[in-house]
Design goal:
about 40% helix, single chain, 2 helices, two-stranded parallel ribbon, alpha+beta
Length: about 50
């Protein structure tokens, strides 16, 4: 049985943290992420709606 995990990731709008967040979401996990601006939130949420 696969266990779903929740990750807290800072800076999900770019770089390695974004890549890690995307992989976690694609694997079915939950990601709680931080960003600097509202525009960064929209850019991250677009391909991964909650």
């Amino acid at each position: 049985m696969t266990q779903t995990k929740t990750f807290l990731i800072t800076g999900v709008s770019s770089g390695l943290d974004r890549a890690f967040a995307v992989k976690a979401l694609d694997a079915g996990h939950t990601v709680v992420g931080t960003v600097r601006t509202p525009a960064d939130t929209e850019a991250f949420d677009a391909p991964h709606p909650s």
